[in-house]
Amino acid sequence: MIYEELEELKKGIDDKKLKRKIKNIQKALDDLCTKSGLCLLAKGKSLEKTLKTVRYEEDLINLQVELIKLQNWVYENKKRVLIIFEGRDAAGKGGAIKRFTERLNPRRYRVVALPKPTEVEAGQFYFQRYFAHLPNPGEIVFFDRSWYNRAIVEPVFGFCTEEQYEKFMQEVPEIEHALIDDGIIMIKFWFSISKKEQKKRFKERMNNPLKQWKLSPVDLQAQKMWDKITYYKEEMFSRTHTTYSPWIIVKSNDKKSARLESIRYVLSHIPYKGKEKAKTTLHPDPEIVQRYHRKSKQID
Asked: Locate the Polyphosphate kinase-2-related domain: which residues (predicted)?
């Protein structure tokens, strides 16, 4: 009945803006009447939050359809894709990776999250243990933290010497150039989070038994070491951001928008087949995802 009245109302109106508003109302009603929308409303969620969640879920599914197309293109063309996720603790890296991968063929991708190096690995060429996990032809690999541990975590917490740090900073641009020159498609994300939001997420982890496993002794020091981490982060950007391997900054105080826009960036960056038929925009929001620039304001 409501839909019919809205349609009749549109027919008698010449104002384009008003017609757009009516169309938006119809879309909102459609979203609220979905299974997800009705469940959220039944739980007492506000109309605004319900609409935001339903539209996020719809957008995410459409983007995940595109990720499947991308994965098929990578497999069929024997491409090698490496996506690096870096950022402060609790910035949302793991949650983003989960949304990237949850609909993909598990035989054609890997998530790499390496633990502390063993005694043997500590004596090897620094990049050696990471090279063992580089993508094979037809495969996408997601690094949940990477060799950039040596750029920030290790010097901040005293896990490497000054000489080891300097050697790494000098070598990494050349090594990445070699990997890209060999045909690897590499994307480097930095998930940016404010100090206030990080503190809020740490508190949530402490109080949620399902998330307590995410906390580590290093995490608990992150707030105290904020300024020192900032110094090394800025050094990392300045010395390892290159034209062939740029840093892509993702504003991640809002987890959901960070997930959607980082997926959009990957989809827009890789020329896979069939993207012209996408049911959602593949252009990332420049207010959320942007290439690092040395004249940018402070990045958290």
From this structure: 52-277
- Strands 80-87 vs 139-144: parallel, antiparallel or unpaired: parallel
What are the residues whose beta carbons fall under 8 Å from the beta carbon of 42, sequence distance 6 or more?
Answer: none
DSSP secondary-structure letter at 285?
P
Q: Which amino acid is at 260?
A: L
Backbone dihedral region for residue 90 (phi beyond 0: left; psi -120 to 50: alpha; all else: beta): left
Task: Kindly tell me the burial class for residue 262, based on how many C-beta atoms sit within 10 Å of its own C-beta (0-12, 13-18, 19 or more).
Answer: buried
Summarised one tens digit per residue, pLDDT across range 229-288 is 999 999 999 999 999 999 999 999 999 999 999 999 999 999 999 999 999 999 999 999
Distances 177 to 84, 181, 239 between C-alpha atoms, Å = 15, 6, 14
Beta-bridge partner residues of 250: 191, 289
pTM: 0.87
Beta-carbon contacts of 153 under 8 Å, excluding residues fewer than 6 positions away, are 145, 159, 218
Task: Round to whole Å and give the CA distance between 192 and 93.
Answer: 10
Using the Cα atoms of residue 132, residue 134, residue 140 and residue 144 in order, give the sign of their dihedral. positive
- Whole-number Cα distances in Å, 289 to 271, 284, 300: 19, 6, 14
Would you tell me how many other CB atoms lie within 10 Å of the CB of residue 96? 26
Query: CA-to-CA distance for 124 and 213, rounded, in angstroms?
Result: 29
Tokens representing 167 are 């050697």
Nearest CA-CA partner of 88 in 258, 213, 229: 229
Q: Which residue has the tokens 């409501």?
A: 2
Query: Where do the domains of the chain lie?
Result: 60-291
> 60-291 — its CATH code?
3.40.50.300
Give me the residue label for tokens 């982890």: 205
> Which two three-digit tokens encode residue 61?
């599914």
Q: Is there a contact between 169 and 239 (Cβ–Cβ < 8 Å)? A: yes
